[in-house]
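Q: I'm building a small set of examples for a reading group on sequence design. Run inverse folding on the following structure and report the sequence directly after it, with nothing in between.
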């Protein structure tokens, strides 16, 4: 199978060509970060406009680099949700137009399913598995018993991990997106500041990060009022430690409870060096469980992951019709 994949859910215009579900023939990502930076976050109107400008070029480049023609394609996969509606629409319409013009089957893909399937570009998936999904808009533990089946066993009740990183970064006057900056700063500091860990009630795999975010803001504010200086690197290290402690502990517990064969890390925050290291440490002693961590370029938004998920869905018989629409609230369990 050869699948062209398109991803425009947020601020990356991306296209990729994937062979047999796990070979990357091309993977093109046009990032808009520079355009959104001065606003401190993604501006939906600007994102849509950029997608419109970039989409044709990015798809052509992906096809060229892969050295394939539309006649070679088995299917076209596209992110149908969740994400920004105006951004999603650009990818969905481009994919629909190409599928119609060339008579190629169309497969709608859930963006988070894509993040999880980034791991299939590294290795075969073994079930049951859990995936710790940590991204700009999501923080959840997803249980998979087979290909294409997703059960959310825990999720954030307020902010996503990436969102918390970006908000804390802003209070430390770091540029958008703040995650990588906090990550870098955290390694220059010590986690000496006492911050809360939101374990929530016994037995739950849910998360909460808004209390931690508020604690950071309050601690900085109080110190400023008292004329005390807090080392930003120490605050970054303390915040990062609090996030990682909870993410790692809950992931280990879920992996044990569901007796999984694999643990897959997924989403933009999976690029975090501290999180990667601590997960590796935590799972080193579980010989029967395999921890998979994608390279940084497959953690943040890309289309290769959508192609990997799209291929599996295609093989399971999923076909989308031309009535498919961008769905900003798409539910992963309904896939
Ligand atoms: P979603 O996937 O939930 O729709 P999204 O696509 O916007 O959201 P991603 O692109 O998957 O999110 O991830 C972006 C997030 O990852 C941002 O919040 C960013 O700060 C965070 N991030 C990227 N690198 C790192 C890092 N090294 N440490 C922590 N966070 C990081
Ligand atoms: Mg992004
Ligand atoms: Fe994403």
């Amino acid at each position: 199978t050869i699948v062209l994949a398109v991803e425009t859910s947020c601020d990356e215009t991306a296209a990729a060509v994937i062979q047999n579900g796990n070979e990357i023939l091309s993977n093109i990502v046009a990032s808009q970060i520079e355009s959104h930076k001065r606003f401190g976050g993604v501006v939906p109107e600007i994102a849509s406009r950029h997608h419109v400008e970039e989409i044709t070029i990015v798809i052509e480049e992906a096809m060229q680099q892969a050295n394939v023609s539309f006649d070679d394609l088995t299917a076209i996969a596209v992110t149908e949700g969740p994400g920004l509606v105006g951004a999603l629409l650009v990818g969905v319409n481009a994919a629909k137009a190409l599928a119609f013009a060339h008579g190629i089957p169309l497969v709608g893909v859930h963006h988070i399913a894509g993040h999880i399937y980034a791991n299939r570009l590294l290795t075969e998936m073994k079930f049951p598995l859990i995936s710790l999904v940590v991204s700009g808009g999501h923080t959840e533990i997803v249980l998979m018993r087979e290909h294409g089946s997703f059960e959310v066993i825990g999720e954030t009740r307020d902010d996503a991990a990436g969102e918390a990183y970006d908000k804390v970064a802003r209070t430390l006057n770091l540029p958008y997106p703040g995650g990588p900056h906090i990550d870098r700063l955290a390694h220059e500091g010590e986690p000496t500041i006492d911050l809360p860990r939101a374990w929530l009630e016994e037995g739950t795999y849910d998360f909460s990060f808004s209390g931690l975010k508020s604690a950071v803001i309050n601690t900085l504010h109080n110190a400023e009022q008292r004329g005390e200086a807090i080392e930003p690197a120490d605050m970054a290290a303390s915040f990062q430690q609090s996030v990682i402690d909870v993410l790692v502990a809950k992931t280990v517990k879920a992996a044990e409870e569901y007796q999984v064969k694999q643990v897959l890390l997924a989403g933009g925050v999976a690029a975090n060096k501290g999180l990667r290291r601590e997960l590796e440490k935590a799972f080193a002693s579980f010989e029967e469980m395999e921890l998979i961590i994608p390279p940084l370029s497959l953690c943040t938004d890309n289309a290769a992951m959508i192609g990997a998920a799209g291929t599996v869905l295609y093989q399971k018989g999923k076909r989308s019709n031309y009535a498919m629409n961008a769905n900003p609230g798409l539910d992963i369990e309904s896939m």
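The first strand starts at residue 2 and ends at 7.
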